[in-house]
Specification:
This protein has about 325 residues and is of the alpha/beta class. Helix content is about 40%, strand content about 25%. It has 9 helices and 12 strands. The strands form 3 sheets. Strands 3, 4, 5, 6, 7, 10, 11 and 12 form an 8-stranded mixed beta sheet that branches. A two-stranded antiparallel sheet has the order 1-2. Strands 8-9 form a two-stranded parallel sheet. A hairpin with a 2-residue loop joins β1 and β2. It is elongated. The two termini are about 55 Å apart. About 0% of the residues have low confidence.
Length: about 325
């Protein structure tokens, strides 16, 4: 069975006439008749029956026509997707990211990219570290922002695009709230509000506390940056958050204090599958992102207020 036979079959079914179908296909009538005959022989059924001067689908022909129509639509869609794959200025980019980046970073970079490529569509998927890795490997997404960067993974690869400093956040009336900087050990008597198990910021904070000589006392656990920040602002404890978490305004805001010792950072990487090429539109977005973060780094160096720092390794 050939694609040409199916194409001729659908045209005859539409026109109910071999001559008219041949004219629209710009081929000889005999070529259409021959292809239909070969298709019927292969299937072992009559797809058409004569009705006056026209042809009419037999019952089995009607059934076959419905299936072929669906097949041809899927094929057209596949061809369109291939064209989009090969066109860096249109198509769809599937990108995954952790919740903490959805507040400011993702909207900013997507808006900037779509200013240049307005025909590009985006499909977003949020997740934690393990699910983002799985989504990249299983091709659920083309690219994923992830923290920490999975260095040495055998199925994904990418680049560290940010190294972001973490700050202590405390209630505005906390004794350390107005300090320019503190050591993490100064918070050892406080109750901590941490992310739940599975979130990448939790082990970063936990290990930093151990490095500072104490085990954090956990008051509450949360799953969103807004929840952590809100509970601290309500006086329920202290926590550590990256500066990116403070872009969104909220009536209840905790105080933010820099930690001088130990210096606590998180790496944010941009990863993709290591065993295949990205679609051109996704590759264009990746190239844009690498340039975007490099420019951010240069601008922050000039202003000496840098939050975004490409990894120095």
């Amino acid at each position: 069975m050939e694609l040409r036979q199916l194409h001729y079959f659908m045209k005859v079914a539409q026109k109910e006439h071999v001559t008219q179908a041949a004219e629209e296909l710009h081929v000889a009538q005999s070529a259409v008749s021959r292809q239909i005959h070969q298709l019927e022989e292969e299937l072992g059924v009559n797809l058409f029956m004569q009705k006056g001067r026209n042809l009419q689908l037999t019952p089995v022909g009607q059934l076959f026509c419905k299936r072929v129509e669906t097949l041809m639509k899927d094929l057209d869609k596949a061809v369109a997707e291939i064209h989009e794959f090969l066109d860096p200025e249109r198509g769809e980019i599937r990108i995954g990211f952790p919740h903490s980046l959805g507040i400011h970073l993702i909207p900013s970079v997507v808006a900037e990219f779509r200013n240049r490529y307005p025909n590009v569509r985006f499909r977003f998927k949020q997740g934690m570290f393990p699910s983002l890795i799985r989504d990249v490997i299983s091709a659920e997404v083309d690219l994923a922002f992830i923290s920490p960067f999975p260095d040495g993974h055998d199925q994904v690869e990418g680049d560290v695009v940010l190294t972001e400093e973490l700050f202590a956040i405390v209630h505005p009336s906390h004794p350390l709230a107005k300090e320019e900087s503190i050591t993490l050990s100064q918070l050892k008597e406080d109750k901590f509000i941490l992310f739940s198990e599975g979130y990448s910021l939790r082990p970063i904070v936990w290990e930093a506390c151990l490095e500072a000589g104490f085990t954090p006392q956990i008051a509450f656990e949360g799953e969103e940056t807004d929840t952590i920040r809100g509970l601290v602002a309500a006086g329920m404890g202290v926590s550590l958050l990256p500066e990116m978490a403070f872009f969104q305004s909220n009536p209840m805001q905790p105080a933010k204090v820099r930690i001088s010792e130990p210096r606590i950072t998180r790496t944010i990487g941009l990863i993709h599958r290591s065993d295949e090429k990205l679609p051109l539109v996704a590759q264009a977005f990746r190239n844009f992102l690498l340039g975007y973060f490099e420019l951010q780094y240069k601008n922050n160096q000039k202003s000496a207020t840098g939050t975004y720092r490409p990894d120095s390794n």
